[in-house]
User: Fold these one by one.
Assistant:
Number 1:
Amino acid sequence: MGFMGNRYWVLRHGKSIPNETGVIVSSMENGKLEKYKLASEGVNQAQLAGELFLKELQENGIPLENVRICYSPFSRTTHTAEVVASVLNLSLGGPQCKVYEDIRERYFGPSFELQSHDKYSEIWDLDEKDPFMKPEEGGESVADVVSRLTSALVQIESEFQGCAILIVSHGDPLQILQTILKAVGEQVGPDSGDLASRVEAIKVPTVLSQHRKHALLTGQLRAVV
């Protein structure tokens, strides 16, 4: 487990209705709407991801009682978590599943909301140039997302120990999460300090601008720590 007290897997939500229609849904207000949950293909992807996660748990000798599913409150991630939980014979409303607002989708800003997916490339180009720059006023920069993901990790680490944590979230947040965990893992030494200060130490443009390297497909599961 190294520098973390738990083992972590990440899962990008299955293909959602916004993915199918090619629309950006990144605000909490819209993201929670039922009409933006998983498309039927996404339900299948979530089912397969759940089966793969179960297989990895078994291969690692991890009992189901040690599993915690931490998910974003958006309808597409909640739907994904629900499908995965059912594969593991867990209840989404039970003690092993918990929603965390801080792992929600990155909010790109009002002028991007409900616009075409084609606009993502504009945002990612900006991220490469300056990950501390917001896509627009009201939107979140990569660095903004790092701050809240760090809060979520600190909270999860304080609540659970020795667990297999599945984080069910979105494309950008999971790319960013993997970026910071990789960088923190590479700089850990005996006196590296607590998790928040370790993340702060690698919160620099050269690291954060690389988040697209950790892209996940919809419904893709990946072990990270």
Number 2:
Amino acid sequence: MTILQITSLLIVLAAVFGAINYLFLKLPSAIGILVVALLASFGVMLVDMGLPHLEIAETARDLITSIDFSDALLEGMLGLLLFAGALHVKLADLREQWRAVFLMATMGVALSTVVIGTGFHWLTGMPLLVALVFGSLISPTDPVAVLGVLREANLRKSLETKIAGESLFNDGVGYVVFLVLVGLAFPGDDHHASGLQAAALLFVQEALGGAVLGLVLGWLTFRVMRLIDDYSLEVLLTLGLAFGGYELAVFLHVSAPIMAVCAGLLIGEVGAKHGMSEETRDYVDAFWKLIDEILNAVLFLMIGFEVFAVAFEVDFLLAGALSIGLALIGRLAAVAVPVLILRPFRTFAPGVVPIMTWGGLKGGISVALALSLPDNEWKPLILTATYVVVIFSIVVQGLTVGKLANRLGRAPDLV
């Protein structure tokens, strides 16, 4: 199938599954599409078991595997999704919470990687470095999933900013950590740095380079927008920034996710205030909300279909089930330690830790990173465990975190 045919099929299925969810399941849109996609996938497998001569499952598996989920997300959709998410996070709010956001997105990711990786090494007997790779890809919270849930929960602004800001930045940081660890664990892979010195240089180049590139491109786009008063052209400029900036970051070997976040933050704050008319702001806001919703639907549809890529072996599924607990423990460490460090300087209500722990949803980024691993004996186990954790996180945590947040996150003293 051509790219256009695949894209058309995904959009049609996302629309149909979205309608099914709206009419019958009535779950939050993205989660509902994921659930319907999972049910459809399992339905195909059951039919194949009853009528194996039709080879329906094999045909579906070939179609799904022909879509490079990792490339589609990491090299395409992710830039738009991160830009859209960052566009609606205000710098003024982020500045007030920058210490917590910074510590959780850096120290938190590192702690979670170590906790999960060490635990996975102990559970499976996997080499420690390879297990740390799993820890790094499952540690970042998925901004797409997290921001989608935030829209359903009426949180205090300070808590919402912590969750949204951290999810945007720890995604980029986690991706860089993943690249570093893959280079150390699989030194024969040409696409990643190998050796400690090369790994350190890669981290600095990716993280700082991505931030600088995003700010520079965002500033240049803002300066151009100040000279223009045409909402359609200005919307096009933001789209060009998200697309072109992401691809330029990939070409320059700097962190494209961090670039997208920094550019989105600058346009959403400085650009919206000083470079757009009120009419343009309304159109830019509506356009990127629509892009976010459409890509979100397609992404969750693809996650549901990726079940065909999972190895259904009992040992792998058991490891995946146990990894759910590991992921939650790692997330708890990523949240609780920064809170303890900052507690002498500010007050935190008890609700912050449980909400941010349970609300640290995993998503398509983790699956994409697992799929992007070089072929090795541990990849099927890592992919299966990742998929189990992601499905649990999106469906179970995603459907309950709003209630938890509304119960604890609206306390008057929560900051």
Number 3:
Amino acid sequence: LTMSEYADNPPAAIFLTQPLDERLPEIIKYAISRGIILFSPFQGDVEKGVLGGVHISDRVLPHINASTMKSAGINIKQFFMRVSVIYGQ
């Protein structure tokens, strides 16, 4: 996993399409340091530091890591936050 090609022009968001396992901390650190929204659909990734994911119960809801969001300097509209499951508050 290298992000060097994005050094001068980082993306606004990264959507993980496969589990990264041991490489996940590296991409989390990259996203936080550059204010990039990192989204993962994989269970447990939000708790590991990914900014956003999905919470599935009787409904499918956004799952937000509040600590990561704050560290990355990202603000999300209040409506979205109200309907989200927040981790780390």
